[in-house]
From TrEMBL:
Transmembrane segments: none annotated. This is Circularly permuted type 2 ATP-grasp protein. It holds the Pfam family CP_ATPgrasp_2. PANTHER family: BLR5612 PROTEIN, SLL1039 PROTEIN.
Length: 493
C-alpha cells in the first residue's frame, strides 16, 4: 500500500495537499516541509484564496491566447482545431549547482552524439570496433545513405538537441531519450516565461532567475556560425511544412523572434546547386535553412518523389556545400531508442569520459535474451517503439490489461527491431493546480532541455520545458496525450 499523508497549509488552494511518501516530491520533503528554494513561492500562494488563484489562472490563459500559443493533435477527433497549451502557474525551480551538473552532462552527451553521427556516415570506426552493432544502425529507417561522406560546415550534425530527463525517486536525473531530428517545444518555454512575468510578476521579482529570452539570439548566432564559407552575410530562414502542421506556432514564433523569413518549400528553388528564395525584388540566395520538415519530404529527387513540401535539388546544393541544413539529414539514426542504450558507450568511445548523466536500463527486443525477459515481465515494463514520438505507441505494463499485453506481444514478435522496453521509472511529482478540483495536487513531471552546437559554439538554454502529466497517476506528459507544462526557473548562484 502506498503511504500518503494529508498536510495542512494556510493557503486554501494547498489545503490537504496529499504527500505520497513513495514518490519524490520536488516541492516538499518526506516530512512535508517545504524545500528551501520553494519557500517564497509558498509564502506568496498562502496569500491567495481559491477565487484569487482561479482568477490568476484565467489571466495566464489570456496571456497564452493573446500570444497565440496553441498546438494541434493529429489524432484529435476535432481535426484542425487549435488548442491553448495547458500551463500551470506553480513554477518548477532548479538550484544553480543542480543545473550546472545537468548542463555539463547535456553538452557531453550531445558532443558525443555529434561525433557518432559523423562516424557512421564516414569511417564507421565505432561499428568496426564492435562498440555499437553495425546491423542496428544500418537497419534504422533514419539511416540516410545520401549522407555518406557528407561533411557539414564545422562538422556539426545535431545543431539543435532536445534531451528528455526525469528525476527519479533516488534524487538522480536520468535521460529518457535524445531528440536530434527536429526537437520541438522551445517556443513554449519562452511563452511560459512571458505568461509568468505578466501573471505573477511580484513573485518573479523575489527570485534571481536565469533568462530564457535570449534563446532566439543564440539560435541565430549558431545558424550563422555554420553558414557556408562563401556567405559573407549569411541569409538564414526557417522552413515549415505550413500552417496545418501541429508545431506551426513554434515555426513562426522562432522566425519572428530571430528576425528571419519563415518559408515553405514553394518559396524556395535550386539553380546551379544554389538555393534561392523568391522575393518581390527577385531571387535571393539562402545560406542556412532551419528545416522543420522530416528527411523524407525535404527533396523529392532524393527521398519521397511525391513530396510537395520540400525543394527539388536541395540535397545536391547541400552536398556541394552551398547551403547548410539544420539539423542535418540522417541524424535520426542517433536518436533511435535502441541506439539510446549505447550512448554511455558512445561517450566513452569518442570522449574518453565517464557519462555524467544516467541512462535508464533498456532492453532491446531484437536481442534474444532481452526479448524473452520482456515477454515474461511485460507487466513490470514500459514498451516503446524506437522511432515514434509524442507518447504514441507506448504500453505501460503495470496499467495495461491482459488483452493489451497479449496484443503487444504479438506486435513485438512480428517486428522485434522496432521495440525496446524499460523499467517503470518513478518520475518525480510537483504541486500542480487542478482546475476541476480548484486545489493543488502532485503530478508527474519530466524536463526537456535544449542545447545548441555550432562552429566553436555550445549553448544550453537555462531552463527547459517541464512537462506535466495532468491526468492523475499518468506518466505520459506529452501535450498530445493530455499533458501541460510549467515555467522552469534555474536560479543564479
Amino acid at each position: 500500500m502506498t503511504q500518503s499523508t494529508q498536510h495542512q497549509f494556510t493557503s486554501d488552494v494547498l489545503t490537504n495537499y496529499p504527500l505520497n511518501l513513495a514518490l519524490l516530491d520536488e516541492v516538499f520533503n518526506k516530512e512535508g516541509k517545504v524545500n528551501t528554494h520553494y519557500t517564497k513561492v509558498l509564502d506568496q500562494f498562502s496569500c491567495y484564496s481559491v477565487e484569487d488563484f482561479k482568477e490568476l489562472n484565467e489571466h495566464a490563459k489570456l496571456s497564452f491566447f493573446n500570444q497565440g500559443v496553441t498546438f494541434a493533435v493529429y489524432s484529435d477527433k476535432s481535426k484542425g482545431v487549435e488548442r491553448i497549451f495547458p500551463f500551470d502557474l506553480f513554477p518548477r525551480i532548479i538550484p544553480a549547482a543542480e543545473w550546472q551538473r545537468l548542463e555539463e552532462g547535456i553538452i557531453q552527451r550531445n558532443m558525443a552524439i555529434n561525433w557518432f553521427i559523423h562516424d557512421i556516415y564516414h569511417e564507421k570506426l565505432i561499428l568496426k570496433d564492435g562498440v555499437v552493432p553495425a546491423e542496428l544502425i544500418f537497419s534504422s529507417k533514419h539511416y540516410t545513405k545520401a549522407m555518406l561522406g557528407m561533411k557539414p560546415v564545422g562538422n556539426i550534425y545535431n545543431h539543435i538537441s532536445g534531451t528528455d530527463l526525469i528525476k527519479h525517486s533516488d534524487g538522480q536525473y536520468y535521460v529518457l531519450e535524445d531528440n536530434v531530428r527536429t526537437p520541438s517545444g522551445v517556443s513554449y518555454v519562452l511563452s511560459n516565461r512571458e505568461a509568468m512575468k505578466k501573471t505573477l510578476s511580484g513573485l518573479f521579482r523575489k527570485y534571481n532567475i536565469r533568462s530564457v529570452q535570449d534563446y532566439p539570439q543564440h539560435l541565430l548566432s549558431m545558424m550563422q556560425s555554420v553558414a557556408p564559407e562563401s556567405a559573407d552575410n549569411p541569409n538564414c530562414v526557417v522552413l515549415t511544412p505550413g500552417m496545418y502542421n501541429s508545431a506551426y506556432y513554434e515555426h513562426s514564433f522562432l522566425a519572428h523572434n530571430m528576425g528571419i523569413p519563415l518559408v515553405e518549400g514553394r518559396d524556395l528553388f535550386v539553380d546551379k546547386n544554389f538555393v534561392y528564395m523568391k522575393t518581390i525584388y527577385g531571387p535571393k540566395r539562402v545560406d542556412v535553412i532551419y528545416r522543420r520538415i522530416d528527411d523524407d519530404f525535404i527533396d523529392p529527387l532524393v527521398f519521397r518523389p511525391d513530396s510537395v513540401l520540400g525543394i527539388p535539388g536541395i540535397m545536391a546544393a547541400y552536398r556541394e556545400g552551398n547551403v547548410t541544413l539544420i539539423n542535418a539529414p540522417g541524424t535520426g539514426a542517433a536518436d533511435d531508442k535502441a541506439v539510446y542504450s549505447y550512448v554511455p558507450a558512445i561517450i566513452k568511445y569518442y570522449l574518453n569520459e565517464e557519462p555524467i548523466l544516467n541512462n535508464v536500463h533498456t532492453y532491446r527486443c531484437e536481442l534474444e535474451t532481452d526479448y524473452k525477459y520482456v515477454m515474461e515481465h511485460m507487466e513490470e515494463l514500459v514498451i516503446k517503439p524506437v522511432d515514434e514520438s509524442g507518447g504514441y505507441g507506448i504500453l505501460i505494463g503495470s496499467r495495461s490489461t491482459k488483452e493489451e499485453r497479449d496484443e503487444f506481444k504479438r506486435i513485438i514478435t512480428a517486428n522485434r527491431r522496432k521495440y525496446i522496453a524499460q523499467p517503470v521509472m518513478s518520475l518525480s511529482v510537483h504541486a500542480t493546480f487542478i482546475e476541476e478540483e480548484n486545489v493543488f495536487e502532485p503530478r508527474h513531471i519530466d524536463l526537456r532541455t535544449y542545447a545548441l552546437l555550432g562552429k566553436d559554439k555550445q549553448f544550453v538554454l537555462k531552463g527547459g520545458l517541464s512537462r506535466v502529466a495532468l491526468r492523475k497517476g499518468s506518466l505520459i506528459v506529452n501535450s498530445s496525450q493530455g499533458g501541460g507544462s510549467k515555467d522552469t526557473w534555474v536560479l543564479e548562484e
